[in-house]
Amino acid sequence: MTGPAHKIVHSRRRFLSLLASAFAWLPFAALAQSPASPPPPSRGRGGGGAGGRGGGRGRGRSDAYELPAELASFAALSLVLGRVTDRSVTLNALAQDTREGFFEFGPAGRPAVEKTAVMPLRAGEPVEVTLDNLQPDTAYTYRLQSRRPGESTFTSRPAGRFQTQRPPGSTFVFTIQGDSHPERPQMSHPDLYARTLQRAAEAQPDFHICMGDDFSVEKLRTYSAEDLTGPYRLQRPFLGLVGGVAPLFLLNGNHEQASLYNYNLKGDPHLVAVGAQLARNRFFPNPAPDAFYSGDGEPLPGIGALRDYCAWTWGDALFVILDNYWHSPALVDTALHERDDGNNAGKKNRDWWGLTLGDAQYQWFRRTLEQSKARYKFVFAHHVLGSGRGGVDEAHLYEWGGQNQRGVSEFKQRRPGWELPVHPLMVKHGVTAFFQGHDHLYVRQELDGIVYQEVPMPADHGYVAYNEDRYRSGLKLPNSGFLRVSVSPAEVRVDYVRAFLTQDEDATRRTGDIAHSYVLKPKVRAT
After folding, report:
1. H or E stretch including 434?
2. Which strand (E) or helix (H) includes residue 132?
3. Rounded to an integer, what distance in angstroms lies between the CA atom of residue 181 and that of residue 229?
4. What is the tens place of the pLDDT at every residue in 69-92?
5. Predicted TM-score of the model (pTM)
6. Residues 493, 522: contact at Cβ < 8 Å?
7. Which residue has the higher pLDDT, 30 or 467?
8. What is the 3-state secondary structure (H, E, C) of 363-375?
9. Across the beta sheet with 376-380, what order do the strands follow?
10. pLDDT tens, residue by residue, 353-388
């Protein structure tokens, strides 16, 4: 389904030309001049769900989840940004073959004026470097120069970009993707995922937020430290498509299996919890508490800093990322080795009050909202309560809303020392919108002045609205695409930007179409 207004209809070649012009990325420029690759073989027909159509249930080509051949350079050498502040940014480089290299960087539109030291880039080993002493509110470009053993000259990689923290009164864009689930061929196609991320990069966001369930361990059969890097290695070439020009922020989903419940067990669950979190922090530069970010400062033995929940201010907006899984001693959702079909033993007969953000995270969240004077406050979590289905439909329950399933308030007894349940706390402090994933469709709902936004999947080639029956209100639309959020002092505009495989496009639906848009006004005056 697409809306008639604000449609952005670009051919593949036009899109790649624009991206190359904006970022001076030579591989994209070359692609714009090359013929389009042939579509993969037909996948058969599949359910569209709530207006979706086309899109079969299998991927229909090699089972390998890989970038299209024309984007192979992003797999050979992957770069992602993270931990951006007012005066620094961290780059993480991952090369397929051994080489050495250095970064050169400077304010956009000027020659590069700074260089890092030459550093080794060993095959398959992520390397981090922090670019610091930057200027606030400044757009920068950067470029990696590298060479393989035996080569005398360095080869220049096409330039990337990033933006340091913007001050109040600024206008900027950020983008959000829902669950990508590359382990599920019925709902994730690598070519479509690449298209979505390329379109997100074209928006020139200041950062890109992933809502979780991007690094599932579901298909792993052994759990060595190296095995557990597999889901993170798989995602690097894809997320590098946008992460090379927009710092990434990662949320923890239930299928990552990085949780306190697993950590407290012995055997495989403990190995997975530790190994998954170590891999996450090794392959992606996630923030820890410092002068710029607040967050979880309590290390765990065997892991160190979790780098899970965090908050920061950018322009007129406060951003808060919550973690549903690392602070709940009880099992929150599907257990390791269990099926995710709603009938597994781990979910039966459980006490839903056992699912919790934890005292430390809750009190940090309360203080963060209370102390912020931002015009807009955006909160992100994988899902309300971290389990179940629905948005505002679940917001009255347990620690989120204070009631049990019978409508009886048990909050004071169940959460002593907590001021309010999570939803009333967000209402009290003027939260603008709550973003979640997990349910695999687009839904916009509203409750007590707060928008509850379910974020669509980026790679579902069936274009389905999964779990729509669990949302009893709101506008519901099928996958796939991403959210583009434009923030200005006067308003916030949220656009659902659609993405389709080339062979699934026609005159009524094309990649870049705006399926739905809405505007939010500030609740809090800037001081």
Report:
1. strand 433-436
2. none
3. 16
4. 999 999 999 999 999 999 999 999
5. 0.88
6. no
7. 467
8. HHHHHHHHHCCCC
9. 294-295, 310-314, 317-321, 376-380, 433-436, 450-454, 442-447, 475-477
10. 999 999 999 999 999 999 999 999 999 999 999 999
